Amino acid sequence: MKICWYDDQRLGVxxxxxxHDVTAALAALPxxxxxxxxxxxxxxxxxxxxxxxxxxxxxATSKPLDQARFLSPVANPNxxxxxxxxxxxxxxxxxxxxxxxTDRFQGSIEQQGLFLKATSSxxxxxxxxHVRFPERLTHHELELAVVIGSLAANVGxxxxxxxxxxxxxxxxxxxxxxEDRSMRxxxxxxxxxxxxxxxxxxxxxxxxxxxxxxxxxxLRQQSNTAQMIMRIRRQxxxxxxxxxxxxxxxxxxxxxxxxxxxxxxxxxHCSIQGVGTMDVPIHAATAEPRGPVVETN
Length: 297
Prior knowledge:
Radius of gyration: 18 Å
CATH superfamily of the largest domain: Fumarylacetoacetase-like, C-terminal domain
CATH topology of the largest domain: Fumarylacetoacetate hydrolase, domain 2
């Protein structure tokens, strides 16, 4: 099943080129309480939600995909985890241009460690990327996103994929410069996820998917997830040995060669086999805060 958030926070199921409104299925979820348990409530109860959405689907209203405004398919992740330089061709690319990529991060992925991105950086494709520092380079990095579906702590590699809810396309946007990687990748709108969550049962082998990215029609990135240095099973197991993974946690699994700059006015087209495609507009920065403002009186 392909599950999405779209338009004004409607819940949808994507099927046969249309998005079907199954927002009423949210009634199947347990009521939210404060303080909330860590993780995304919908992803934590995905099986219950899917069953209700399937029941509602025959009578649901729908619209063509090109008329929907897709948001992030995960609304409330506890954390966003990144895997650095996880394709050999990207390692070579970075080593060949240290003026751009810097030489601060040397050694294997295990030596460098995973990194975290602020959850406030998360947006859907329709919201686009807002370039915060136009005087500096902002680069695109296409990645397969793994969405955790159940609590995972100290899991083994053989069991790792059993904790996956599904997959999505991710853009791990990056400001180039001297600061720590986690800071440069946590700018508002610099974590794009979409266009929907493809449940794990629809992806037979996440380690064998073609990936492709263009900017304004120009091919920039093209590879296959089989080329990853650290496999997805290992990523999940290793991450869970350091911190508990909660439903809705996102792992951005690394990017291949071809990363490059974007500027306001560009359109980034992303495609991952079996997952889908999404177009992400690049905007100038805005001074307005993102998201709803919590009322204090």
